[in-house]
Amino acid sequence: DMGGHDTFMHKEISEQPDAVDRVLRGRIDDRFSTVHLGGLNLDPREARTIRRIKILGCGTSYHAGLIGAGLIESMARIPADAEPASEFRYRNPVVDPDTLYIAVSQSGETYDVLAAVQELKRKGARVLGVVNVVGSAIAREADGGMYVHAGPEVCVVSTKCFTNTVTAFALLALHLGRVRDLSVTDGKRIIEGLRKLPAQIEEILKTEEQIKEIAAEYAGAQSMMFIGRVRGYPVALEASLKLKEISYIHAEAYPASELKHGPLALIEPALPTVAIVPDDDLLEKNRAALEEIKARSGRILAVAHQEQAKADHTIVVPKNEDELDPILMGIPLQLLAYHTALAMGRDIDKPRNLAKSVTVE
Ligand code: F6R
Q: Taking every annotated instance into account, which residue ranges of this chain make up the domain SIS (predicted)?
């Protein structure tokens, strides 16, 4: 049942305020400015001995893991990174007893992720799951973890589950941070930010008409470039994947800082750029990238907290805490992919060559 929407993708994008509310519900502890994660199966003493965190997933779940790694590093100060699960499996990884492994999956059935979990467990590692489907194979195989409570996702491409997974990582990062060295003040600040998310997502969804008009301009593009820096880079990766999957427009994502090391050669009026430009300590750096693109006559769409003079269009999103901004900045770009694909007459819920869950190698 699409509940009055034309596609499941549109329904699922629109459900995000409620979905994020669900992932937060019952988990916030104001008394200690932390969160409770019942199924984590990781006592505080163990949480304090973790030396590294390695996050594994595929596709959109891998991108959520990249943002998750950033959240964990900034709030818990534990070195963390994310890697595609299949790459990890096939490189005979060094499995380290002081590393906590986290498997991320919407379906909980993705074969490459499941096989990575089984290999890790065979070698004695501790593996947590960040999973949407309750009771799925990866959830059962993991030593503990958290459900992201996005609810059923029917559209082949993931939207609300991405947002909820990133929010779940913010909770995990806050929890680990508060067991370690994150201050009460910072804990409170993050909790306040988390509580603002559902209403801020609601606000972003109201910009849909503006995004639809912008999408009409991009519908004919051969190729598009997505750029971001540090926290913004995984947002760019995910936005570029979403556009490819449903519109079949070729898209690339680059860290803004890498532009001058090659991809700047591609910039011309026919290759539009989408730039993630949060109002944080990297604002001036990001603006410099916009200038470089403008100097080569590239068209620019900025997703930002204020109008960007160098951009042809800016989608202004509400500001949250710097750490939590990536959760919000991806949402207008789900709508951009959606309306671009719609304008091109694509079958949005069932893109060619793709399946909702990839249970084979
Ligand atoms: C992207 C998409 C895929 C999945 C990937 C992992 O929109 O749908 O890239 O994210 O196949 O699937 P899960 O999260 O079920 O393991």
A: 42-182, 214-351
Residues with CB under 6 A from ligand 1: 58-61, 105-107, 110, 113, 156-158, 245, 357-358
- Cα(342) to ligand 1 centroid in Å equals 21
**Cα separation values, 334 from 16, 77, 251, Å:** 11, 30, 14
Q: Provide the 3-class DSSP secondary structure of residue 69.
A: helix
pTM here? 0.97
Distance (Å) of CA 164 to CA 8, 92, 280, 300: 17, 31, 23, 28
pLDDT in tens, 25-65: 999 999 999 999 999 999 999 999 999 999 999 999 999 99
Q: 228 near 252, Cβ under 8 Å?
A: no
List b or e across 266-289, with b for residues whose CB sees 16 or more CB atoms inside 10 angstroms. bbeeebbbbbbbbebebbeebbeb
- What is the reported pLDDT for 358? 82
For residue 80, the tally of other CB atoms under 10 A from its CB is 26
